[in-house]
Amino acid sequence: MKKIVLFALILIAFFGCKKEKAVSQQGKIKNDIQPVTAALMENAVLYEANIRQYSPEGTFNAFTSDIPKLKKMNVKILWLMPVHEIGVKNRKAKEDLSVEQITDSLEKAKYLGNPYAVKNYRSLNKDFGTPEDFKKLIKTAHQNGIYVILDWVANHTAWDHPWITQHPDFYRHDAKGQMVSPFDWTDVAELDYSNPNLRKAMLEEMKYWLTTYNIDGFRCDVAAEVPTDFWNSARAELNKIKPVFLLAEAEKEELSQKAFDVQYGWEAHYIFNGIAQGKKTVKDWDKYAFKRDSLHLGNAVRMNFTSNHAENSWNGTEYERMGDAVEVFAAMTYMVPGMPLIYNGQEYDSDKRLKLFEKDTIAHSLSKMFSVYEKLGKLKMQNEALNGGKKPGAYKRLATSSDDKILAFERTKNNKKIIFVANLNKENSSFTVETEGTFTDYMTQQEITLAQGETLHFKPWEYKIWIAK
């Protein structure tokens, strides 16, 4: 009997040590998904979620139940807008109005604050749920093969963040010794990265979310306003805990040399809007594409998008900005090199500007775009020609008889070839394109054969994705 008990104790100790080793290797947590790699970025699709606005409940649990739908669209990286407790002091009701200026108590209560005014980097917004609910969301995402990145606001804090009183030296001050806001963002105070103690503190706050909740990285708000050398050192330190994915809200090449995996494709986005509004033409896209390729750094990857939370709230929905061209530019975000983004609600054809400072809700009624994103995501996942990370499929512009209105290009990699042709114009167009052969029309799955010099007829904003046989 003593031998049996002794043997059982040995087994418990053995497996306990084995488990402890697995946990310690990941910085106090056991990894439940394969580590982030550069290969992930080649065909990844990003999804941005605003927990407050995603569902009527505005909770982690309500969002978690929909994670399998993200998997259907082949989403690989889930970006959560800030989930922290929001500051109360100087809280904004609208861009030019603070809650403190409102006298009516009922009116005042509806303003929940700016998600980017963080009151405590280690807190969770109680309106969203509990720590256990948040852990369940992350675990469910991982079980569906989806990585989770958290929106990180490193440039500023809310005015009632504990550091305001405990560490006033963490903040920038004006000539009169007063703390200052960045830009005209009066609900936040700007941090001072010349202080090494702030840098240490900020890094510890970021580590907390890796070790406590097992998140997979960060989307870094106004990343160019924070010194690049901070991001470089932060990336190195975070990677000691686990490999992380970092997305910069910036378009600054030096940020990609050591720190960030992906940056915003702002310039491409504005060209999309300009073409849709008749202010730009395909030639403007060609200039950008040439510049992008000629200036491309090995680590620079762009996030392609037709909307995000800031564009939606302040500049209008994609339907306001692009009208009938929404689908063709959504397709382009998948077809050109880079990583496409879906902002929550786009898959439901939402044409609503979501309020940023108060409760609003996305209508979840399936129409057209969910199936479009599903098809585009499947193609990007399965066809190497659309690889868009550090080893992207080649991009070759194909000549057409109407190069200011018709965009045609091919993507190729490892004997895979895809041709994209689009009428980026509000008029019917007849044209020829420099290609021939037999293809599968991906969106209809019909076979087509094109002869060299054959005249094609496209409706306004019509596009085709042809897969080479």
Automatic annotation (TrEMBL):
GO MF annotation terms: lyase activity
GO biological process, one term: carbohydrate metabolic process
InterPro entries noted in UniProt: GH, GH13_cat_dom, Glyco_hydro_b, Malt_amylase-like_C
Swiss-Prot/TrEMBL keywords: Lyase
Taxonomic superkingdom: Bacteria
Record PROSITE patterns: PROKAR_LIPOPROTEIN
Location of the Glycosyl hydrolase family 13 catalytic domain: 35-380
UniProt cross-references to Pfam families, sorted A to Z: Alpha-amylase, Malt_amylase_C
Protein name stated in the entry: Alpha-amlyase
